[in-house]
Specification:
Length: about 475
């Protein structure tokens, strides 16, 4: 049967149960479900939610208010399963798990892939972890306990233990028979790992290659010998970079002796890339998690310390201004113009900072090219500085009728943009070398440099030039 015949023969979709992606989780739909739950009409709520994908069910629960979630989950008993929990926001999931007995959590974890089960159990309190693990099947418990021995955010926590590995002396027919007869295969896999007698990975075979090859073909003849192996203790961010760089669909994870212990698939890496990108963007703003479901107390603790650090940098800038108090009193227009110099310089520094932090995070910036990258940012800053300096100089001269003031602010703007661009490149590199996270602290130091230098350059040049009467 041709592909077109198969499509024509497919049963039509039931319009009453089908739900277009654009219609999912609209406010009216969420309100209908919650109203049904409030009215005690669990059957209607279940009928509405039944067609949803597990990820959409997880989103539905997250959209409900905190005090509505318990009733919603009870009404959707049977629908809120392991697949839904795996897709759920960490904070929302923790709240739901707190309401379950250890045996219930163990049952749900046993239905998940190992990596998803580990993600749930690792967030529990230590005594809760022990209770859940005691209630699990021995094989599942052993796999999760092993995963928990690896560092957080490492390949060992991320990997799945369920994989397909075959000996290198097998033929294609044996592999196909094994795949058809075994009842305990991984649910999703795209390639088969080929291992030596000592269980070291020696190659991989794509399913498409296996299915197109004659049964008597040795696996060793069709396998791809070049492969990307992931050490079990590798940081998940480095794992994501390898998947991105080499366009991997899955990769073998090996222990310290090189034995195959698990695999990582691209669907898990997509989540990691999203998490790491969001984390870096939030850290540049002084926010650790930035999750709307995060408790208020935790958001407060994570943000206030950076506001306090910014307060200190603001005091440094204020100290610089205080040194030119007399000049500002004699020529009030300086107070109007000096925030422009500091603000534009801050934006220029933030641009260089964002590019540098991203380059560090993606391993584009290394010891071999860091100074070339710094010199590039300095050249960009010079060009930007000249352009903005000319524009602000001409503008101030025309508006205020003072060529001297136009020259002073132009020179100050040029100086501050060059300093800001240089600092935006150097500060993250210095922090990285010191062992600190550049995404966390760079913006605090950059703000201090651009504000202080902007005020110092503008007010200092105005005073030194004799512009102040």
């Amino acid at each position: 049967m041709s592909e077109s015949d198969q499509i024509a023969a497919a049963p039509p979709t039931d319009p009453d149960n089908a739900m277009d992606a654009e219609d999912r989780l609209r406010p009216e739909f969420v309100e209908r479900v919650l109203d049904a739950v409030d009215a005690g009409d669990d059957a209607t709520a279940r009928e509405l939610v039944e067609p949803l994908h597990p990820a959409d069910v997880a989103d539905l629960i997250e959209l409900a208010a905190r005090d509505e979630r318990e009733g919603l989950v009870k009404a959707l008993a049977g629908i809120v399963d392991a697949d839904v929990l795996a897709e759920m926001n960490d904070y929302v999931r923790e709240g739901l798990l707190d309401q379950l007995e250890p045996e219930q959590v163990a049952d749900l974890a046993g239905q998940m892939d190992t990596d998803d089960a580990v993600a749930i159990i690792e967030d529990l309190e230590e005594d809760e972890q022990r209770a859940v693990l005691r209630a699990m099947e021995p094989d599942d418990r052993a796999a999760i306990e092993e995963a928990l021995t690896y560092p957080e955010e490492s390949a060992g926590r991320l990997m799945q233990r369920d994989l397909i590995a075959v000996p290198d002396h097998w033929q294609v027919g044996q592999v196909i028979d094994y795949l058809r007869s075994s009842e305990e295969l991984a649910d999703d896999f795209w390639e088969v790992f080929v291992v030596s007698p000592s269980h070291h990975p020696v190659g991989t075979c794509k399913l498409s290659t296996i299915l197109r090859s004659p049964r008597r073909t040795p696996v060793a003849d069709i396998m791809q010998r070049e492969q990307t192996l992931i050490p079990v203790d590798m940081d998940q961010e480095d794992v994501a970079l390898r998947f991105q760089k080499y366009a991997l669909v899955s990769a073998a994870v090996v222990d310290g002796s090189g034995r195959l212990v698990g695999m990582i698939t691209v669907d898990d890496v997509v989540h990691i890339i999203q998490e790491e990108a969001s984390e870096d963007a939030l850290l540049l703003s002084g926010v650790d998690e930035g999750d709307i479901n995060e408790p208020v107390s935790e958001s407060y603790r994570s943000r206030v310390r950076w506001l306090m650090a910014n307060l200190v940098t603001a005091l440094v800038a204020s100290f610089v201004i205080r040194q030119f108090e007399d000049s500002i009193e004699r020529l009030a227009i300086l107070a109007v113009l000096m925030p422009i110099v500091a603000g534009v310089g801050g934006n220029a520094g933030t641009q260089a900072l964002a590019v540098t932090v991203r380059a560090i995070a993606t391993n584009q910036l290394t010891g071999s090219n860091r100074w070339r990258a710094v010199w590039r940012e300095i050249r960009v800053a010079v060009l930007n500085g000249v352009t903005i300096a000319v524009l602000i100089g001409i503008g101030v001269t025309l508006v205020l009728g003072s060529e001297e003031l136009g020259l002073v602010i132009a020179a100050a703007m040029l100086i501050n943009i060059i300093v800001a661009g240089t600092a935006g490149a150097l500060v993250p590199l210095a922090l990285e070398r010191a062992g600190a996270d550049p995404a966390v602290a760079s913006s605090v130091f950059l703000t201090m440099v651009t504000d202080s230098m902007g005020f110092l350059a503008f007010l200092g040049l105005a005073t030194a030039s004799g512009l102040v009467p």
